[in-house]
């Protein structure tokens, strides 16, 4: 699917592609996945529906490609020399406003993923699996550096931990995820689970919501 999609999309300019993706994400936040139609995207972007289908094949791929376009780039090349530095750097590439917008997108897709096979497959192939593979490369470097034991049982759950913190922060704390919260979570939960020693200046300070609750 990826090679075919790349061939299709080569017919439009990067600027036009970015404009289309922005419109798709705006519609997704406004009406949710089920109510988002190719007709609505065509109207919002002054495109023909036939053009949209020719370029992306269908709504599921278009939505997931639009979501992927918002990511600041691959993470596997982030290499600060330590796992903690790598994870902090990855979190720091999206500001708090971007994170709040991403939460809105996740809410828009939450139910649809369980009911739509095309969307679920597109998410796995185009977003989840590539990101999991990039995290594996980062962790593999940490293992080679001797920071993490190769047989650490938490290795299989690092992405689950990070996504879980991001997705549930609003539900539990009634606040959006922020850089400060996620960095604190990495230091307090993810790194200890992987057996990585705390920073030299001591455990990371509790995030504000925890400190006041």
Describe the structure.
69% of the residues lie in helices and 0% in strands. With 213 residues, the chain is mainly alpha-helical. Helix 7 (96-115) crosses helix 8 and helix 9 packs across helix 10 (179-193). The longest helix has 29 residues, at 117-145. The termini are far apart. The model has no long low-confidence stretch (mean pLDDT 85).
What are the secondary-structure elements, in order, as H or E? HHHHHHHHHHH
Task: Give the terminus-to-terminus CA distance.
Answer: 48 Å
Number of alpha- plus pi-helical segments: 11
Count of individual beta strands: 0
Shape: elongated
Radius of gyration computed on alpha carbons = 19 Å
The overall pLDDT average reads 85
Largest sheet: none
Q: Percent of residues in beta strands?
A: under 5%
Which stretches of 5+ consecutive residues score pLDDT under 50?
none
Class computed from helices, strands and strand pairing = mainly alpha
Helix amount: 55-70%
């Amino acid at each position: 699917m990826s090679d075919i999609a790349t061939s299709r999309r080569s017919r439009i300019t990067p600027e036009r592609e970015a404009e289309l993706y922005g419109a798709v994400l705006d519609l997704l936040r406004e009406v949710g996945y089920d109510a988002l139609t190719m007709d609505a995207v065509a109207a919002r972007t002054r495109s023909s529906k036939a053009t949209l289908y020719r370029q992306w094949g269908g709504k599921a791929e278009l939505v997931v490609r639009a979501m992927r376009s918002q990511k600041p780039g691959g993470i596997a090349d982030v290499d600060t020399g330590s796992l903690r530095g790598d994870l902090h750097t990855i979190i720091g590439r999206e500001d708090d406003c971007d994170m709040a917008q991403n939460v809105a997108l996740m809410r828009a897709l939450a139910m649809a993923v369980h009911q739509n096979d095309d969307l679920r497959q597109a998410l796995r192939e185009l977003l989840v699996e590539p990101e999991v593979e990039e995290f594996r490369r980062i962790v593999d470097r940490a293992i080679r550096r001797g920071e993490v034991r190769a047989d650490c049982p938490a290795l299989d759950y690092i992405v689950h931990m990070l996504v879980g913190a991001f997705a549930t922060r609003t539900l539990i704390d009634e606040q959006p995820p922020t850089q400060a919260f996620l960095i604190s979570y990495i230091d307090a939960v993810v790194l200890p689970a992987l057996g990585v020693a705390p920073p030299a200046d001591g455990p990371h300070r509790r995030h504000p919501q925890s400190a006041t609750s």
